[in-house]
Amino acid sequence: MTTMPPSIADIATRLRVAAQTGIAIPPIRDELKDGGADAAYQIQEANTLFHLGQGRRLVGRKIGLTSRSVQLQLGVDAPDFGMLFADMELDAGQEVALGRVMQPKVEAEVAIVLQRDLADEGLTLSRLMSAVAYVLPAVEIVGSRIQNWDIRLLDTIADNASSGLYALGTEPRKLDQVDLRLCGMVMERRGEVVSVGAGAACLGHPLNAALWLARKMVEVGRPLREGDVIMSGALGPMVAVLPGDSVVTTIGGLGSVTTQFAA
Length: 263
Description:
Elements: H1 6-21, H2 29-32, H3 36-53, E1 58-64, H4 68-74, E2 80-85, E3 105-114, H5 125-131, E4 132-142, H6 153-158, E5 165-168, E6 184-189, E7 192-198, H7 206-220, E8 229-234, E9 239-240, E10 246-251, E11 255-260
Parallel strand pairs: 1-8
Antiparallel strand pairs: 1-2, 3-4, 3-8, 3-9, 4-5, 6-7, 6-10, 10-11
Helix pairs in contact: 1-3
């Protein structure tokens, strides 16, 4: 059994405690600067293994920092990935208690659901497309265990790509039924437009982001499997939410998702 460096284990524990207590911790990037992204992903993996050991179940992955506008918001310039667990998916129409996610913000995404494993090396775009069962409009409720969202790349990687919860639309579309690059997105909060974007904002095309992820997952030994959900990345700026907010997200050709937050 590989022994985890004490610093990795300590930071992983601090992030879990923050999630359990709701008390955010200071940024951790300075502690990781020598190990870089590799050390940050070691922390994420340590907590993934912990959660799997506690009985949580992986159902997919999320890609973060694919939108240039979100990168500018957070001061980073590269995508990252995080794990999606079954208990992170909201039921259709389920009201969300804000306390379930620390410092919650919402962002609109295209969700991709797989009908085949993507476990082979040298994955191509055509191979990815053949493995897609359908796509859906989606909203990710992101959160941060880092104080005041004071994050850079290493902070968010270690913090499971600032994951929280996610909600999916209920009317699946086949890839040939929608142009994911040109589909426009409008997010309204309490009837006011608060975020706009398009599929092209997501690494040029949501499938580009998904292909990056699929290749990365093979590389790190956690390949995507049949039935997995890919949250392909934000189509526009993320938006903070408050108690009682109702957020309606519409993506052209895919439909809408309504996310209601408890008062």
